[in-house]
Specification:
- There is one protein chain.
- With 201 residues, this protein is an all-alpha fold.
- The longest helix is centred in the C-terminal third of the chain and has 23 residues.
- The radius of gyration is 17 Å and the shape is globular.
- The chain contains ten helices and no strands.
- Helix 3 runs parallel beside helix 5.
Length: 201
């Protein structure tokens, strides 16, 4: 499990991991580094990783576009909630955590990973029996979430004022919404192709 965990950390430096990492990083910032949101994002990523190796869910076409639109809406709601009376319920820890988990889950389904030795072995082993590969895939996905943990720790260490947190939230959320909007507009394949080319160049 440790080799899979370490390989995932190394893979986070590659552009092909951007689609997996950016949405949960955005949620870490807009939720002001809440541990509950980070924990939910890890659960969402692990669940998505399990479905990935099991080949149970493979979004394509309108499904990808719908998931992108939902992520745009989710990020927008979490950003707007603190300053909108009717949306204050969205700013509660439980709702923010659930939203972070769903966003991370969607990002996992957008992801087209760089297949390293450990991930390749996990995917190969899953053909003969998926349950035996679940610990390795769990370790891999948790390793992939380490940059998100780093962002959570940075936000908590900085402890920005409410006004600064809103500014950072809008900036980060805007970046996440642009990527999700590209998926919603049917640009997923172009994003994957570009990120893969950057990875191999």
């Amino acid at each position: 499990m440790l080799p899979a965990f370490l390989e995932a950390i190394r893979a986070t430096t590659q552009p092909c991991t951007l689609l997996l990492l950016l949405p949960p990083v955005v949620m870490a910032i807009v939720t002001r580094g809440r541990w509950s949101a980070f924990g939910a994002a890890c659960v969402g990523a692990v669940l998505g990783g399990w479905l990935f190796i099991a080949n149970v869910v493979a979004l394509d076409g309108w499904q990808l576009q719908l998931s992108g639109a939902l992520v745009v809406a989710a990020i927008g709601l979490v950003i707007a909630a603190p300053s909108t009376a009717r949306l204050r319920w969205v700013a509660t820890p439980g709702v923010e955590a659930a939203t972070a988990g769903l966003v991370a889950f969607a990002a996992t389904l957008w992801w087209r990973p760089c297949i390293g030795e450990e991930l390749g072995a996990i995917l190969t082993g899953a053909r003969g029996g998926r349950s035996g590969e679940l610990p390795g895939m769990t370790a891999y996905m948790l390793g992939a979430m380490m940059p998100v943990l780093a962002v959570v720790l940075a936000v908590r260490a900085i402890d920005p004022s409410a006004a600064a947190a809103r500014r950072y939230g809008w900036l980060a959320g805007g970046c996440g919404m642009v990527v999700a909007a590209a998926v919603a507009l049917g640009r997923h394949d172009e994003l994957v192709t570009t990120l893969t080319r950057w990875t191999t160049s």
